[in-house]
Amino acid sequence: MYQKEHPSVQMDIVTYDGDANGSNYLQTKVSLFNRTRSGWPDVVFSSQNNEVSWAVQAGFTAPLNKGLVPEATLANWAPGSNDPCTVDGTLYCLRNDLAQTVLWYNAPLMREWGYQVPKTWEEYQALGQRVATEHPGYLVGTAGDSFAPEIYLWSAKCGANEITGPKAVKVNTTSANCTRMASLLDTLIADHTMATSSVFSSDFDKNAADKVLMMPGPSWFGGSVFQESFKTPPGQIAVAPLPQWAGDPEPSVGNVGGGTWLLSAHSANLKDATDFLTWVTTSDAYQGQLAPGYPAYAPAAKTWLAKQNSAGYYVGDIAEPLQTAAKQVWPGWGYGQFSQEAIWAATVTPGMTSGRSIVSLLPDWQNAIVNYARSNGYEVGQ
């Protein structure tokens, strides 16, 4: 679309291994470019939100809020959405889309069975236990994905990943916030209303896709999971705010993914590269009308939400819960150079699937995070 609108701009689009949950492919390539003093791309899209954790030190990213992108434009990003891009007040990338967590649910079934959408995690757990008795086989969520901690533990304000400096992290996976959410998951897993398989697995697709009553998950679950993977018919899925702990005055949600755009400090085409970077993150025609995920740029997000609502797939208005959640992502979960998803998948998932409780695995998770962080040069506080 940009090429058609700007035919005089020559573009060379290259794809790379950018979705490997911490494969460090881009970092390795930039290191090579730095050694050879050539080859740097002008603009990069990454599905990872933690590229700035190394890219600034490598001298790769250009500072965007130092005259390249107007402050009036930057002010339109959702509050906090560009935090992964900011180092000491300088902005080094732009967030493409958000992946704030909400509660997806089957509205006709909730209504038919006389259930109320839970507003607190306590109500959510109680409803999950009730479903186990009254409608066995139905699910209220899954803990089987590598990004499960970003849905449940992040939203619970579990301090497993607090980045306190460029190369410093604080890790505490056994706090009350962590154990409380882990205990909730354990209870529902034991009752078989919380699955332990991935939403993208053939097992889930075959045996559980039509048994989802509720499912906490990111904003992209609506399209990618319910519409594309599960093939859930229109008129079933609705969205509600993510439950909160009773009495918590500061609502918090997690985040699963999104993406960032980086501008190379080495670009020989800085003007055109900046123009493209701005267009691709703010264009209403692209972000509002065509982009698959919830845009980080707030004006485009309004257009995107209006389009989702007008499509007739969802039950009710999805705009308010998604817009509210976009402002509630808990800032205490940072974006370190190491991959939390890889750590969880290697440490907690095998233990959970073999029958161990998540509560019992929290110390193992802590040790694994500490080891991964230190291997990446981080000073670790506990």
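That was protein one. Protein two is written in the same sequence-then-structure order:
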Amino acid sequence: MVAAFHASGYAATRRLDDLRATEYPHLDDQVYLDYTGSGVAARSQLRAHHERLRGALYGNPHSENPTSSASTLLVEQTRAEVLAFFNASPDEYAVIFTPNATGACKLVGEAYPFRRGTRLILTADNHNSVNGIRVYARSGGARVTTIPVREPDLRVRDDDVTAALGRRGGLLAFPAQSNFTGVQHPLSWISLAHERGYDVLLDAAAFAPANRLDLGVLRPDFVPVSWYKVFGFPTGVGCLIARREALDRLRRPWFSGGTIQAVSAIGGWHVLVGDETAFEDGTLNFLSIPDVGVGMAWVRGIGMDMIHDRVTYLTSLLLQRLASLRHRDGSPLIRVYGPADGHGRGGTVAFNVLDSRGGVVDERIVARDTAAASISVRTGCFCNPGAGEGAFHIPRRALRGSVRHGMRTLDDYLDRLGLPSGGAIRASLGLVSNVADVEALISFLDDRYADRHPSPAGLTPRERC
């Protein structure tokens, strides 16, 4: 199977193996399969950071002194590089730096003009950072609609999206790629929503690390990005890429240092600055924002198409190998959630281990065992409750608000729902993943769990989802 897999074109991505050997030696003793959680930084990125800080002095940008101006120049240069990375015209789009994609979503939620008669439409497959916008929508009097995922692939149907949009207007929010199942949702929904009078928030956090995103063609209104997910470094820097027309409709509910043109303490009035910096609160992470430019240049030098091809090939291999794992009696060892092949999906694969009786092995056991074997996978619900509710077939009536009453721990909640486990295992592939990573995980699962009944002894309670 592996030989046939190599013949499919994997060899064309061999340059990534050379880069892994020279730029990512910190992966040598690890099996890293958590790229949806975070990318991995190359040595070159870290050297560029240190060389920049050793070579010059940079100060708080909000001034005209030499060190402040030096920081401002690099920040503005990075804004332009972000727009170029996504083929977004500076006449149409603005870049607002945030701590992460979550901060970008919060910025939209708190400032969007939700009111009675408008709607927030969410796909059930959304990260909680997007789901949280519904709190702002409801407080503004808007109606919130959630579109379910459907079996067998846990996709959202086009006709469900069309029906939900109607003609009221408001905001549609969905991920370009699910951080739970890896499903890549149709980007044609953007133009459909625009035709119906909706703005669109396209969550690109899981999509951007291994896929081209051409904003000049797609033209979503708001795009949250976390840069550490794309290339590992720096953490603490994300951005909101926003169409200027849509940005003009946002109304900030407060002001802070760095956001105002003029303000009076005694008079009680303020005037926000007239550009996108009105949405950047306080002092930016000016020592790290230039590292975003370094990371984007690193990705461009490799080629996003090569990264995409590598992740696509390895995802197909991982799915094939997981499906091949069996207990001695022929029953499956693994249950995969979402698409079972590489069609219309990215490199995020969620699954559970099954015992020889078909029961789900507690994901905390797998978390404990993989950690001991220096394998980095993620376990839980991945901050995506809607995809999890679809994957685990939890009926809507069981999810009504009354289920939370008397609940002290997450385990209490799972007991109320009758679930055997608190989530799934997620293996995700990225820029310098290789066949050896996939085979190491497969060998571990086969050796550790086939025909065995893992003991839950010593597990700590689940604290959160």
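The radius of gyration is 23 Å. Keep this in mind for the problem set.
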